């Protein structure tokens, strides 16, 4: 995604917009003080996005390195269970990653 390339080596974050499927992307500002290792949303920006005509149906963020496997911090995010959740890496992406922070993921 172009947004991830523009923000590298920091993580990007944004909303997925649409209905039954993702129709658009809404880049957000990563306000984390440590944006190379995580993301935080600006509550004011979130409020504006939630009032848009297309509903927010998910969230995406990037991992600047090659891994798209979610960190424990990623899995701890309090997101609605029906949202899409995408992680973008260098040339890879992962939709709806596992939610558990224990065990291994596909042998990785």
Short description:
The protein is of the alpha+beta class.
Radius of gyration: 13 Å
When the domains are counted, the total is: 1
What fraction, in percent, of the residue positions are helical? 10-25%
| Oligomer status | single chain
How large is the count of helical segments?
Answer: 3
CATH topology: Cytidine Deaminase, domain 2
Structure, described:
The longest helix has 8 residues, at about 45-50. The chain is globular, with a radius of gyration of 13 Å. The protein is built from three helices and five strands; from the N terminus they run αββαβαββ. It has a five-stranded mixed beta sheet with strand order 2-1-3-4-5, with helices on one face. It has about 110 residues and is of the alpha+beta class. It has a single domain (about 1-95), classed as 3-Layer(aba) Sandwich (Cytidine Deaminase, domain 2), CATH 3.40.140.10. Strand 4 and strand 5 form a beta hairpin.
């Amino acid at each position: 995604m172009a947004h991830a390339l523009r923000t590298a080596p920091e993580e990007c974050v944004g909303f997925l917009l649409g209905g039954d499927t993702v129709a658009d992307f809404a880049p957000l500002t990563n306000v984390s003080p440590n944006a190379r290792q995580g993301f935080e949303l600006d509550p004011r920006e979130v409020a504006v996005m939630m009032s848009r005509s297309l509903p927010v149906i998910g969230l995406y963020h990037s991992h600047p390195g090659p891994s798209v496997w979610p960190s424990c911090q990623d899995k701890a995010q309090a997101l609605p269970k029906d949202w899409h959740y995408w992680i973008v890496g260098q040339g890879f992406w992962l939709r709806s990653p596992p939610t558990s922070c224990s065990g291994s993921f596909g042998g990785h």
